[in-house]
């Protein structure tokens, strides 16, 4: 039989496509496997590294049914090849070794044995631990050398490329058949109940499924559907839980249960409109049931949030704990819509005029693991994405529509084949890298100087992902647990495209654009980047040189309360003025001067330490100007509260604006300008709401 080697797979390093000269025998394989099993750490704390796919070796998931494939024996597997159009039917003849994946020894109908490694199975899947004796079909298998001579294995990366076969499946050859382990539907139901009691939920679902297949008695099936629905709810397989709940309807007195479970499942999917309809029906059938009343009220509250954008932010903040970061809240998206963007592909647009400070949208994470260890955050999100796409196929639509950076899709992703959703893990990773956000547990907490930096998790917010980047963005995001809160940094017109900063922008244009190019594959065309591109290279080099010099002089450290010698302040001031002069008027008119932010901030802090209040005012105004805000000469009368609305369209909002306005207020107060001082505080409070997403006291910044 000829083996098809997919030509697109040339990237796999050992892609020789040759039949191995020798394979390990069944005895050799089993012996080594047993020694691995003995060493296996089965404790719940044993490390289970999540494998992240390497994009260079990407290959598409099979979207063919196993029934369309030519079943081949293990001896026809070619090293380094993807066997397109072929399939395997094999039985696990060993307990699995569970590490980054589940490794088992498998046997085909001719008694040939080989090693099978299955990656990326969710722990809700029975295949995360391939039970010994089970028969699986592997679609379009990838066979690879495992590093050592003669050591090969069948490597399953895409969870949908392996299917657990029912014991009675006619595709299983005679010699691999065990015959059904259990005969009657009642036996299967009892086995399922036992597995449930032992908390082996995937096995419980498997056995209930067998019971449903064996029996065709609707009266027997209805309670089994109800039970399977309950187990699926526990497993977070909400699509299946909802379908089971609705399938359990008989019109009898227990009908309310079907609507109750289906309503809870829809709630789990954050589909509150459907959930509300189902729970309303459940309530009409059982008006006094306290559980239904509670769920119904909860769902009504979510719908209210979705339609009004009214949130109790202090309560949300207060509910956060290290264990609990997923908030029970609806997403308010009505002010925005997805549309074609002149900047790139699709973007997000305002559906109505918004004022500076307004809530643009608030979105609950589509997927966000509670994993704030930076080294693990990416792998945790990747694993969650794979798991949820397997467990809840309805997620595939919204997630797979996201930008994938041009990944070559096979075409069948997200669709159901052989009863399972086709999940391409390389596509998942391509989408993850371009669309995920880093999020602290709470942006408010993060503004505290006492909170160590860097504890961020990674999550996916599907709606927010449509926003393109702009260095001088008109929105700003913050986080309360898994809620992303987006506010307008200035007035926005109806129909205007909404932008966010993907990451805090670096002062030097070539440095920040390299970051965008490497991370997201684009060069920024925002007002600031476009302006700076007009500046000759010699001027760019000069600014860079001066920035390096001034940072060196300041020892890259902001002054605290210590007294900085006058001479040093004068030197920094002098260099800063030179840097200021190196900003051409025609280029920088109305846009931020990012290289000046650090030195002007330093001068504010240094003069503050020496109680030079007049100088603090002067340099604080410069800080605001350097962030792109319109401020007059220090002598003119002005209203700091107006900076958000009267500064044009190229301002850059950060927590430094809040701190600067506060310091400015302090200086005005010390100089006896009480009215100006209180206006500065008001402006700082307004800015703090933009930064943290909600009304918060400025004194948080001191703790
Ligand atoms: C999260 S997606 C944003 C939505 C995307 N425009 C779409 O069509 O789905 C991120 C990708 O959008 C593109 N992008 C974002 N901001 C951009 C900008 N300012 N200029 C050009 N491309 C941009 C980049 O290709 C980036 O990898």
Structure commentary:
It holds the Pfam family SET. Residues 334-503 form the SET domain. This protein is α+β, with helices and mostly antiparallel strands and 703 residues long. It has 4 domains: 7-176, Nucleic acid-binding proteins (OB fold (Dihydrolipoamide Acetyltransferase, E2P)), CATH 2.40.50; 185-308, Tetratricopeptide repeat domain (Serine Threonine Protein Phosphatase 5, Tetratricopeptide repeat, Alpha Horseshoe); 313-517, SET domain (Beta-clip-like, Beta Complex); 527-702, Serine Threonine Protein Phosphatase 5, Tetratricopeptide repeat. The strands form 5 sheets. Strands 1, 2, 3, 4, 5, 6, 7, 8, 9 and 10 form a 10-stranded mixed sheet that branches. Strands 11-12-21-18 form a 4-stranded mixed sheet, with no helix packed on it. Strands 13-20-19 form a 3-stranded antiparallel sheet. S-adenosylmethionine binds at residues 341, 343-347, 403, 405, 434-435, 465-466, 468-470, 520-522, 524-525.
């Amino acid at each position: 039989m000829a083996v098809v080697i997919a030509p697109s797979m040339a990237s796999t390093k050992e892609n020789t496509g040759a039949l191995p000269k020798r394979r390990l025998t069944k005895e050799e394989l089993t012996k080594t496997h047993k020694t691995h099993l003995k060493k296996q750490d089965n404790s719940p704390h044993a490390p289970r590294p999540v494998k992240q796919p390497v994009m260079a070796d990407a290959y598409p998931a099979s979207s063919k049914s196993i029934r369309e494939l030519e079943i081949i024996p293990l001896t026809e597997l070619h090293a380094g090849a993807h066997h397109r159009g072929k399939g395997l039917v094999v039985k696990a003849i060993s307990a699995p070794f569970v590490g980054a994946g589940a490794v088992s020894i498998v046997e085909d109908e001719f008694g040939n044995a080989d090693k099978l490694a299955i990656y990326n199975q969710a722990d809700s899947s029975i295949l995360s631990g391939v039970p010994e004796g089970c028969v699986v079909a592997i679609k379009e298998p990838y066979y690879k050398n495992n590093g050592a001579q003669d050591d090969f294995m069948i490597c399953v990366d895409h969870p949908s490329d392996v299917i657990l076969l029912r014991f009675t499946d006619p595709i299983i050859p005679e010699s691999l058949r065990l015959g059904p382990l259990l005969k009657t539907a009642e036996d299967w139901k009892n086995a399922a109940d036992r597995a449930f009691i032992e908390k082996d939920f995937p096995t419980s679902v498997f056995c209930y499924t067998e019971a449903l297949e064996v029996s065709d008695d609707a009266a027997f099936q209805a309670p089994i559907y109800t039970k399977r629905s309950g187990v699926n709810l526990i497993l977070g397989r909400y699509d299946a839980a909802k379908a089971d709940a609705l399938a359990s309807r008989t019109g009898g007195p227990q009908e309310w249960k079907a609507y109750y479970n289906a309503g809870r499942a829809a709630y789990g999917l954050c589909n509150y409109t459907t959930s509300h309809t189902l729970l309303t029906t459940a309530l009409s059938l059982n008006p006094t049931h306290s559980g239904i009343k509670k769920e119904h009220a909860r769902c009504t509250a979510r719908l209210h949030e979705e339609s009004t954008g009214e949130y109790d932010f202090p309560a949300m903040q207060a509910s956060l704990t290290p264990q609990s970061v997923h908030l029970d809240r609806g997403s308010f998206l009505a002010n925005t819509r997805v549309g074609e963007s002149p900047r790139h592909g699709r973007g997000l647009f305002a559906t109505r005029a918004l004022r500076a400070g307004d809530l643009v949208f608030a979105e609950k994470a589509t997927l966000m693991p509670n994993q704030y260890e930076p080294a693990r955050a990416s792998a945790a999100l990747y694993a969650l994405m794979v798991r949820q796409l397997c467990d809840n196929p309805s997620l595939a639509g919204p997630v797979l529509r996201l930008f994938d950076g041009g990944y070559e899709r096979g075409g069948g992703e997200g669709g159901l084949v052989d009863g399972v959703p086709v999940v391409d893990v390389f596509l998942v990773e391509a989408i993850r890298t371009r669309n995920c956000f880093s999020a602290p547990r709470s942006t408010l907490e993060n503004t505290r100087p006492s909170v160590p930096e860097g504890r961020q998790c990674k999550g996916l917010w599907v709606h927010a992902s449509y926003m393109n980047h702009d260095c001088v963005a008109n929105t700003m995001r913050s986080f309360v647990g898994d809620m992303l809160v987006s506010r307008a940094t200035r007035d926005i017109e109806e129909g205007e495209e909404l932008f966010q900063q993907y990451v805090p922008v670096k002062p030097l244009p070539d440095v920040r654009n390299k970051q965008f190019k490497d991370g997201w594959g684009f060069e920024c065309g925002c007002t600031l980047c476009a302006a700076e591109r007009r500046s000759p290279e010699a001027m760019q080099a000069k600014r860079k040189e001066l920035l390096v010099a001034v940072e060196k002089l300041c020892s890259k450290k902001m002054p605290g309360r210590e007294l900085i010698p006058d001479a040093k302040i004068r030197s920094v001031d002098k260099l800063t003025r030179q840097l200021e002069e190196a900003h051409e008027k025609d280029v920088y008119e109305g846009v931020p001067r990012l290289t000046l932010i650090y030195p002007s901030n330093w001068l504010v802090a240094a003069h503050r330490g020496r109680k030079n209040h007049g100088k603090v005012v002067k340099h604080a105004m410069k800080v605001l100007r350097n962030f792109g805000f319109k401020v007059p000469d220090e002598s003119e009368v002005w209203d700091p509260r107006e900076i958000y609305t009267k500064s044009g369209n190229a301002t850059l909002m950060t927590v430094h604006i809040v701190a600067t306005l506060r310091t400015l207020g302090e200086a005005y107060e010390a100089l006896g300008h009480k009215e100006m001082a209180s206006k500065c505080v008001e402006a700082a409070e307004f800015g703090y709401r933009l930064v943290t997403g909600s009304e918060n006291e400025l004194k948080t910044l001191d703790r």
